[in-house]
Amino acid sequence: QQQVKQSPQSLIVQKGGISIINCAYENTAFDYFPWYQQFPGKGPALLIAIRPDVSEKKEGRFTISFNKSAKQFSLHIMDSQPGDSATYFCAASGGGGFKTIFGAGTRLFVKA
Amino acid sequence: GAVVSQHPSRVICKSGTSVKIECRSLDFQATTMFWYRQFPKQSLMLMATSNEGSKATYEQGVEKDKFLINHASLTLSTLTVTSAHPEDSSFYICSGRTGTEAFFGQGTRLTVV
Fold it and tell me: Is B42's CB within 8 Å of A105's CB?
């Protein structure tokens, strides 16, 4: 079964700290790994995404690290800010299908 | 990124009535659109995949007669919740796909009373 496992379920970080969220997948046919940010009452917004041909992608304070052999990828939020407090979902898609499979989500709270 | 507009953002309906939710891709053509349901503090659960001009493909356990999906054009898909019951109350989110990227609507909070 296609699955994406995400941890931790919740995360509390001090302002200025680094937030790290981890995901693991099973289906080696996945070829696109996005991260979404969702605020309460809103739809998910694409934050950053990576393909398995690179090991790292950085956009501003957000970095994805990708380990193809371990089938794991993670999101690092540098210099975390209270405005980053939201739920973050990792996801995976590809392998000939068009479905996006979501992780369970991580609720991040950044303390001021 | 591409924009997906979902309407309405909130709707309250009486039990037994039907509700239609619209999903429009504003600046791209979405040959495939997805409908998700999200319960509080949970992840997005894929309900169905709709391709323009053809019948939707429903995920296991989703009642296709209850959740009617129409994808009549490359920019519009609709979800109709028929004979709604309180247990259908949820947050419904649509997504349009362009290439490998999926863009999401703002979501619709449905409350059935």
Answer: yes
The Cα B104–Cα B14 span in angstroms is 27
The DSSP 8-state label assigned to residue A99 in this structure reads P
Q: What does residue A40 show for φ and ψ, rounded to 5 degrees?
A: -55, 130
Do B41 and A107 lie within an 8 Å CB cutoff?
Answer: yes
In angstroms, rounded to a whole number, what is the distance separating the alpha carbons of residues A107 and A86? Answer: 6
- pLDDT (tens, 9 = 90+) of chain B, 113 residues, equals 689 999 999 999 999 999 999 999 998 888 889 999 999 989 999 999 998 888 899 999 999 999 999 988 889 999 999 999 999 999 999 999 877 788 899 999 999 99
CA-nearest of A97, A87, A21, A68 to B44 is A87
Put simply, whether A100 touches B (Cβ < 8 Å) is yes
- For chain B, the straight-line distance linking the first and the last C-alpha, in angstroms and rounded, comes to 36
- The pLDDT tens digits for A15-40 are 999 999 999 999 888 999 999 999 99
Interior/surface letters A31-46, b for 16+ CB within 10 angstroms, e for the rest: ebbbbbbbeeebbbeb
A103 residue type, one letter: G
* Phi, psi for B42 (deg, rounded to 5): -125, 175
Alpha helices in A1-112 (DSSP H): none
